[in-house]
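Recall that a protein's primary structure is simply its ordered list of amino acids. Everything else, from secondary elements to tertiary packing, is in principle encoded there. The following example makes that idea concrete.
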Amino acid sequence: MALDRIDWHSGAENFPAELPNEAGGIHIGMFLAWIINNDLISDEHINESSESLALVKQRKMTGTEFLIKECDEKFWETDLNNEGLAFAQAYYETDDYFEDYEAALSSNEPTLYHVKDSWSNYQKLEPLITSAFKNWRKPERPKWWKFWE
């Protein structure tokens, strides 16, 4: 099942006509780059896309470029390992990711689709995703636990 696709955005009525279709996938690519850099990608990609994975980790290929080249512009559940999928379902598929994306990257842009696909923008977003991941990984603790921390 697809979690997201470039054409869902670039084909939308509110997609800015002046932008290339790839702009509809930058938010997907930023998340995918984080997934790759945190080793939450599927074994299928590890086995079949190892060169591109290395390029993303070396910041010579963006997550959006990976999405286009290795994922046919679609972000599938099967692109993730089990932990990555569980996190994506809890974070990416909710408004939480998009709220973080907007908070980190949209201050000077007319729309979220105008965000530039760059590693400098990724660096602004990465701490928010990492924080969400750490919070998601925390075990549920009883309310009294705060007194022991």
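The beta strands are 2-5, 74-76. The helical segments are 6-10, 26-37, 43-48, 50-57, 63-71, 82-92, 95-105, 119-137.
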